[in-house]
Write a structure and sequence with these properties.
The protein contains five helices and ten strands, in the order ββαααββββααββββ. By secondary structure, it is an alpha+beta fold.
Length: about 170
């Protein structure tokens, strides 16, 4: 059974999110877009543009992660589904990808522990856990500005002895 095992605030530097925008997240087949992201080498492109895998993973603690971002589209009010990675500000963006520059800020992070097919079921509980920990999630008139799945290596990619992984789920907080 999956459970939220850790809730904390994390400071992150100004950075550029580079990835592919798949449109309205409410109409998105996340499995299909993750598959597309791997087959089109989005992560390799971002790592190479950032100076290589080692360099791209030095941005902040946990920056060696693939990101599934839901970010508010100011034109439509909907959250768009993005897949990509964070990179240093100013990193070159390959053709076919796009970017969002983020200022230095804080994340509210929940670690969800369990089987990979179970952990996503607890994502809706993260907002209450963050609020209970004294964090206010950034929002606008349409709702939360952004939140994302952070598939951090090795927490997410390497199951423990019980076959469990840790999914980081993050919100931008004040």
């Amino acid at each position: 059974m999956a459970e939220i095992i850790k809730v904390y605030r994390q400071s992150i530097p100004a950075m550029r999110f580079i990835g592919k925008n798949y449109g309205n997240s409410e109409n998105t087949d996340w499995g299909a877009i993750w598959s597309d992201a791997f087959s089109s080498d989005i992560f390799g492109k971002v790592e190479r543009a950032s100076g290589g895998e080692n360099e791209s993973h030095m941005l902040y603690e946990d920056s060696d992660a693939y990101i599934g971002l839901c970010y508010r589209n100011e034109e439509t009010g909907n959250c768009d589904a993005w897949i990509g990675m964070f990179a240093p500000i100013g990193t070159r963006v390959d053709i076919g990808l796009d970017y969002i520059d983020f200022p230095q800020q804080n994340l509210g992070v929940c670690w969800i522990y369990g089987k990979e097919n179970e952990v996503h079921s607890l994502v809706p509980q993260c907002t209450e856990k963050l609020k209970a920990a004294g964090m206010k999630i950034k929002s606008n008139k349409y709702g939360y500005i952004g939140h994302f799945e952070r598939d951090q290596c090795p927490r997410f990619t390497t199951p423990d002895g019980k076959g469990n992984i840790i999914l980081d789920y993050c919100y931008f907080v004040v």
